[in-house]
Every structure is written in C-alpha cells, then in structure tokens.
Amino acid sequence: MPERASDNRRHRHPLLAALLALLPLAAAAQEPAALEASAPALGAHTLLTHSEGEGVTPAVTAPMDTQPSGSSFIVLNGGYAKNANAPDDSYANRWKRIGRSVSYNGYGDAFNVTAYVALAGKGGAGHTVRVDKSGYPEGEISLPFIEVTHAGVLQDVAQNYAEPGLVLSSGSVTTTGPALLVAVWWGDGAFKHMTTRPDSGFTLLDSYLMLPDNSGVQCAVAYKRVDAAGTYNVRWIGSPIQGAILWLFAFQARPADTH
Length: 259
Hints:
The protein is mostly beta strands. It has helices spanning 2-10, 14-38, and strands at residues 41-50, 59-60, 71-80, 88-89, 96-97, 102-103, 111-121, 129-131, 141-149, 153-169, 173-175, 179-187, 195-198, 203-208, 219-226, 230-232, 235-252.
C-alpha cells in the first residue's frame, strides 16, 4: 500500500541511510582527481645532440613511447642556420613554426634556433623526430623533443634573447587555468663547460652543458605544472656569464577536455 511504502522510506535501516548520505561526498572527492587527470602534464622527452664534425644526416631522436592521442609536441632545432630545416616525425604530425628563427649573437648569423609545435598530435610506440641536415651533415646540432599530455592548446608563448648575466629572465606567459609550462635555454657563449638551472619552481629535464672538445650546441629544458590562471616566467641561473636565447611555452587542455 502507498502508506506502507512511505513508512518504509521513513524508517530505512540506519546503516543504509548513512551510506546514502556519503554518496555526495564521494562524488565531490572524485572531482579534483578527474580534473587532475585531464590537466596538461609532462609526457615523454628526449634531447638529441651531435657534436661538431661528428654529425650525420638525418638527425634522428631516440625512440620514445608517446600517447596515441591528446598530446601536443615541441621540437627545437638549434645549430647551423644552413641546417635549420623543419622536423618531421614517425607519426606524420603537422608541425607549425613558432615565430621566427633566432640567430645567435656574435657568430655572423651562422647559427640559429627555431621552435616548432604539433598540437593535439598522434603518437605511439617508438616515436621519433628527424631533421634533414642538408646544408652541413657533419655540423653540431641540439634537438629537444618534448611531449605534453592532455594538451590541445598552446595558450601562450614567450621568446626573448637575454643579455649576458649570471641570472637570465625569460619573457612572461599568461594562462587561463591549469597548464604545463616548458622552458628552453640556449646559451650563446663559446664555452665547453657551464652550468645553468631554472628557478621559480621549474624542474630541469634534459641538458647538454658539458660539451666535448670539438664543441656542440648548449641546451637545457625545464618544466613546471601550474594549477591556476596566472602570469609566469622563469629565471635561469648559471655560469660563466653569457647571454641566452630563451623560450617559454604554456600548454592547456582544449575547453571541452576540462569538463
């Protein structure tokens, strides 16, 4: 009868009532974890280097396992301007140049660095990037390749050429929510051994700072994960004193991926 059903609901077992009361709390507890899973994060990464006179063409990065979908990728090509060719990769992603090539000071425009990004790309096992060194195959080159997972938007990017100093500051990027920041440092001094480290909560990923006698292209890569909208930069602290070409990328998820 309707009256009895209503009575049963009013007098349900105390343990069942307690469990039902916890359901909204459990759902609320899952929300931060879901947001964490969908926020941009560091994926696979590697740094290929060829020392001067011992390079080959093509320059091919070590294979690494990347996500099948949902990631964005960064590649920077630092070395001889005559080898400043665009990358391609083993999953046929579409690479877009970010800004212009930046020439090193003091080398007569013989050396430069160029940045490329593939947004919301394809990946998988044994993922490699290659650059054809058509101008001077034996020449030195440094080629970082970085994956950012759960990232379909390059929200902001800053590029500047810091004057020589022990502390070098990047430009600033602004985010509208959780983001993965990737910073890349390219020292311009004629040194074989040097140090550099990022501050502002960034973690060093890959670097090429102890060069062989036949020289190479200095490079360091760092990252930071941020949970809120804001404006961010990074300072690089090192020695000896030199200038550096600096990049800072801010990646975010596509709006639909955050719900």
